[in-house]
Design a protein that fits this description.
Blueprint lengths: L26 H4 L16 E4 L5 E4 L10 E5 L20 H7 E4 L1 E2 L1 H11 L8 H17 L6 H11 L13 H22 L7 H17 L7 H14 L24 E2 L10 E9 L2 E8 L4 H12 L6 E6 L5 E3 L16 E6 L27 H16 L4 H9 L9 H22 L4 H20 L3 H12 L1 H4 L2 H5 L3 H13 L3 H13 L8 H14 L3 E2 L2 E3 H17 L14 H8 E5 L2 H11 L4
Parallel strand pairs: 7-11
Antiparallel strand pairs: 1-3, 2-4, 5-13, 6-7, 7-8, 8-14, 9-10, 9-11, 12-13
Helix pairs in contact: 3-4, 4-6, 4-20, 5-7, 7-8, 10-13, 10-21, 11-19, 11-20, 12-13, 12-14, 13-14, 13-17, 14-17, 19-20
């Protein structure tokens, strides 16, 4: 583990750790982690900290007068941190030269980190290629992870404190040019923040108040600093996009704010400013142990939803009614023209498709004689079309996931905070595809058709992989590998050898050995756009979080946050170049129904009972 040591200042650079697949890592690099510093001898590590700012670069050529800045000597924790070479690249042969030129200490109080970022920030006409990339990278790290160590309200107040206001904070202490430059830096940082988060913080009241306050400051300053007019116009554009321009602007605040749908178990909505065009996944239970997962628009009414259920389950719609069931067991019929996703439907619990006497349209599946006549629709649909429909639906979900949702999901334990709905929907979809594969196989009573289904799903998983959709590909493979399906020996024995070989190759991707090396190597070689296996990405962030302290001696461990930001940025990389990504398919009603309306068994006991009925224990 690298640490900071005095040597003449005798400062040792932090250890540089390459990508985990780098074969050239030596023993020291492979053992590096933030937590490993704690196991080193205190006698061997003599580190220094600095006062203003705590977070800073230290050049090798600094003179010994800087020793006066040393506050104390203490053990210091460091981890992997990329130091840019002069070319802005990270080749291994340039690491030694980069280290000899600059040292980095990445820890400090939140306000000192922000102060350092602003002082190091260079506007376009002032920044060089290398230092500009370094400053932008640090700024991106900060904006992606600041919620780990400070609230959004704290950041807003800190930014206002960094803006040299005419109302008291400046008061002639800063020269005109310096004050102007500082103001423009704050505006640039706010612009970057808003651009990165888009509408993610649209409903945050303190952000709206902050934007208005900063806007008033800029309006007052533009008379003394006419060159701020260009920045003011850009800031106005930013506020119009956020609908937060107040009475100082000719554009009034747009009061039509987006209202979150009820995030109960019935459905999860994508984040966005306008709900009319959005689609959600809605669960409608058709028996006590199974439901239909239906992809519908947020404006759907009960009659439309019931029509889909009736068609999918081949039941007479006129004899059915949609019911909301509370956890207490209370049932309430929903009127045909009632909107499903609105504030009027506040009952927590399930949506049920029932007969008019409020009994469920199907008995428990273990006692359902209708299963023997259940058609296997998937066998009549082209395999490629199904995989393309799966991939296009997954793209629409994945494209709605914001980088920040991964941070909220890992660090915030508050249930349904509204900040992770898109991510939760993608994770729900992954789980449902896995359950759908199991359900389709176990609801098929014919041995011959089950063999055809296994072949079908293996081909669909291979097509999804070819389309760079590892989320659905993994879900299908794991569905086929579950105990209830994998135990069907008679069925698997009749699967042709070439399909078994293909399945074995796909299984290798799910091999967890060497920290999922097979998956990581395959995914790294894929060009974007691509869909990662989201549960593994969340696992990586969780391991970074739980394996490293966020604070050391009340100072933010920014090295940890850099690693988290690097992992989160994978979302940005995967979502690039999505224009025209959709693959042409035969978008017939059968294809759409096969992917958008999934019949899923969510009871493990039912799954195993069905499995043992198909092939009893020897």
């Amino acid at each position: 583990m690298g640490s900071v040591r005095p040597t003449r200042l005798n400062i040792k650079p932090v250890t540089l750790v390459e990508e985990e697949d780098d074969d050239d890592d030596d023993d020291e690099g492979s053992e590096c982690s933030i937590t490993s510093a704690n196991s080193s001898s205190k006698d061997d590590v003599f580190a220094v900290t600095f006062d203003v700012p705590h977070f800073r670069y230290i050049d090798e050529e600094e003179d010994e007068d800087n020793e006066d800045d040393v506050l104390s000597s203490r053990g210091w924790s460091s981890s992997s941190y990329s130091v840019c070479s002069t070319d802005g690249d990270y080749p291994s042969d340039s690491l030694s030269s980069a280290v000899s030129d600059r040292y980095v200490v990445v820890s400090g109080t939140p306000h000192k980190i922000l102060e350092h970022l602003l002082s190091d920030l260079r506007l376009d006409e002032h920044q060089g290629a290398t230092e500009g990339k370094e400053a932008e990278m640090l700024l991106d790290d900060f904006l992606l992870t600041y919620l780990v160590f400070m609230s959004t309200n704290d950041l807003c107040q800190a930014l206002l404190g960094q803006y040299p206001s005419l109302q008291g904070r400046c008061r002639g202490k800063e020269e005109g040019k310096e004050a102007l430059y500082r103001k423009r830096k704050v505006l640039h940082l706010v612009s970057q923040w808003s651009s990165l988060y888009k509408d993610f913080l649209r409903e945050e009241e303190h952000v709206k108040l902050f934007m208005k306050t900063l806007y008033r400051y800029v309006l007052e300053d533009v008379y003394e600093f006419p060159t701020l007019e260009k920045d003011l116009k850009e800031f106005q554009k930013l506020l119009r996009r956020r609908h937060t321009v107040d009475d100082y602007s000719p554009h009034q605040k747009n009061k039509a704010l987006f209202q979150q749908l009820s995030l109960k178990e019935n459905g999860i909505q994508l984040r966005g400013a306008h709900s009319e065009g959005r689609e959600v996944m809605c669960r409608v239970y058709v028996s006590s142990d199974s439901y239909l997962s239906i992809r519908v628009r947020t404006t759907v009414v009960a009659q439309e939803l019931l029509h889909i259920v009736a068609q999918r389950m081949e039941k007479p719609e006129e004899d059915m009614v949609l019911v909301a069931q509370a956890y207490s067991g209370e049932k309430r019929a929903i009127q045909p023209h009632d909107s499903i996703f609105s504030e009027s439907l506040t009952l927590p619990g399930r949506l049920l498709a029932c007969w008019k006497d409020l009994s469920e349209i199907l008995p428990p599946l273990t006692d359902c004689p209708e299963l023997a006549q259940r058609p296997t629709r998937l066998l009549g649909i082209n395999t490629w079309d199904v995989s393309v429909a799966l991939t296009n639906l997954d793209w629409s979900l994945f494209n709605s996931v914001h980088e920040q949702e991964l941070v909220y999901y890992t660090f915030s334990r508050q249930a349904s905070s509204g900040h992770t709905v898109a991510l939760e929907q993608l994770l729900q979809r992954c789980n449902e595809v896995q359950q759908w594969v199991m359900s389709e196989v176990l609801l098929c009573p014919s041995l011959g058709k089950r063999v055809q289904l296994l072949k079908k799903f293996i081909k669909i998983a291979a097509h999804c992989k070819a389309q760079r959709n590892l989320n659905s590909s993994f879900a299908i493979i794991m569905g086929l590998n579950t105990a209830a399906v994998s135990r069907l020996n008679q069925t698997w024995e009749k699967v042709p050898g070439k399909f078994k070989k293909l399945f074995s190759e796909l299984e290798l991707l799910t091999d967890p050995s060497l920290n999922h090396k097979a998956y990581r190597d395959a995914f790294r070689k894929m060009k974007p756009p691509k869909i990662p296996f989201m549960p593994l990405l969340l696992k990586d962030i969780t391991f970074i979080h739980e394996g490293n302290k966020t604070f050391h001696d009340n100072l933010v461990n920014f090295e940890k946050l850099h690693m988290i930001a690097d992992t989160v940025r994978l979302i940005r990389h995967c979502q690039t170049d999505q224009a025209g990504n959709e693959v042409t398919q035969s978008d017939g009603p059968d294809v759409r129904a096969s992917v958008h309306y999934l019949h899923i068994i969510d009871n493990q006991q039912t799954l195993f009972e069905l499995s043992h009925r198909l092939e009893p224990r020897a």
